[in-house]
Amino acid sequence: MRVVHASPDAPAVDIYVNGGKVLENLPFREYSEYLALPAGSYNVDIKVTGTDTSVKMVPISVANGKDYTAMAVGYAGGMQPGFDVLWLEDDNTMPANNGVKLRVVHAAPGAPAVDVYATTPFEALAGKTPVLTNVPFKAASGYLQVPTAVYQARVAVAGTQTVAIDSHRLVTWNGMIRTIVAVDNTGGGGPFQLIILGDRN
Predict the structure, then answer these.
(1) By CB distance 3.0 to 4.6 Å, which of 28, 145, 147, 152 could disulfide with 121?
(2) Is pTM beyond 0.85 here?
């Protein structure tokens, strides 16, 4: 299991699993490496760093041989959409044919539903079809398998080609697996940004 802090107005947090601290001082837009857990059920408690103030307690279950991502999303300070934990099962099996697997998560509470474009770098979007359409907040795509190449991912307001987030050059290589997470700016709202999680290789 790994943990991603994607709540733009939440302070740095400590993560406890069944009462024991496993991560400390995790700030917004940062994430842990995978932490090994035996198969079973656990309580994950998110606390404001250095305090006993619990932001959220989440029960989870993990299975042998599976990878998971727990992502803190939404606003912690009372705005809507409110704070939540997005629990994702990851697929880190090798891509077929020496290709690349990419997954997209909409974790920007200040952004509307979006379309996602993947092109060669700086290719004009006019006439292009998005690879994902009308993706709402807290939605995660499946893994998209693509050939090894250099890409540019652009996130646009759904139904338009108004770019809200731009990855610029995204260099890939054989066997690479990445999760691309759209997030707010610190405190909430734009300009929106990306976190690129190194899932494998």
Answers:
(1) 152
(2) yes
For the chain, the helix, strand and coil percentages under 3-state DSSP, each to the nearest 5: 0, 50, 45
Q: What percent of the chain has pLDDT over 90?
A: 100
The residue with tokens 């734009």 is: 190
- Closest residue by Cα to residue 83 from 23, 6, 29, 1: 6
Nearest to 89 by CA among 110, 73, 72, 65: 65
Q: Which CATH number fits domain 1-90: 3.30.2290.10, 3.40.50.720, 2.60.40.1120, 3.40.50.880?
A: 2.60.40.1120
3-state secondary structure of 96: helix
| Topology at the third CATH level for domain 92-201 | Immunoglobulin-like (2.60.40)
| 153 vs 163: CA distance, rounded Å | 10
Phi, psi for 97 (deg, rounded to 5): 55, 35
